[in-house]
Design goal:
Blueprint: E1 16-24, E2 30-41, H1 52-67, E3 71-78, E4 83-85, H2 90-97, H3 101-119, E5 124-127, E6 132-133, H4 135-148, E7 151-155, E8 158-162, H5 167-178
Parallel strand pairs: 2-3, 3-5, 4-6
Antiparallel strand pairs: 1-2, 7-8
Helix pairs in contact: 1-3
């Protein structure tokens, strides 16, 4: 029997959604024992801005996906069709962090841990973007894409310019032919 290496067994997410979806073979049938982890920001009323609790859950979700032996890919997305993420929750900033520089410093440590958890995730990553993606949301969205994609990433009518090495374009094109996406976005 293998040991569990998750930080928190049986974690219930309240600020985000965490879902394991089966990997499908070319015929559309589930592949036994293989999953994609879908990590979804769930605050559409505030354009999926993240609260401190949501940041903590994103960290734990990527860690959980990274430690799950059945997960072969992670998809980071958001609820709704208006925004992937507009950054930190300004209501929370105004009510708690404004005027508390020490607390904001602690928050930024947590934010950096979130970025690290995304970048260190052992699964292959994909980031779905929607119409608005500004401020901190752009920061981790683009940083996320820089690691995985080349050229222009198109989603929901927006375009983010992300430059990386030219030779990755051919590799990405080949991967898109081998593993076609479900039509929600096309990285080329």
């Amino acid at each position: 029997m293998l040991n569990s290496h998750t930080l928190v067994d049986g974690l219930k997410f309240t600020e985000i959604q965490y879902e394991l979806r089966p990997v499908l073979d070319p015929a559309g049938n589930p592949v036994e024992g293989l999953h994609n982890a879908w990590i979804t920001l769930d605050n559409p009323k505030q354009f999926n801005s993240y609260t401190t609790d949501a940041v903590k859950e994103v960290i734990l979700a990527f860690r959980q996906a990274s430690m799950d032996r059945s997960v072969v890919a992670c998809v980071f997305t958001a609820v709704g069709d208006k925004a992937f993420c507009t950054g930190g929750n300004t209501k929370e900033y105004a009510e708690y962090y404004a005027g508390n520089p020490q607390e904001y410093k602690q928050y930024m440590r947590l934010f950096n841990d979130m970025i690290d958890s995304i970048l260190r995730c052992a699964g292959h990553q994909s980031c779905q973007r929607h119409a608005h993606s500004r401020r901190s949301g752009d920061r981790y969205g683009l940083r996320f894409h820089r690691r995985r994609r080349h050229g222009s990433v198109r989603a929901g009518g927006t375009q983010a310019r992300v430059g990386t090495r030219r030779w990755l374009h051919g590799l990405l094109a080949a991967l898109c032919r081998i593993f076609p996406c479900d039509g929600e976005w096309n990285p080329l």
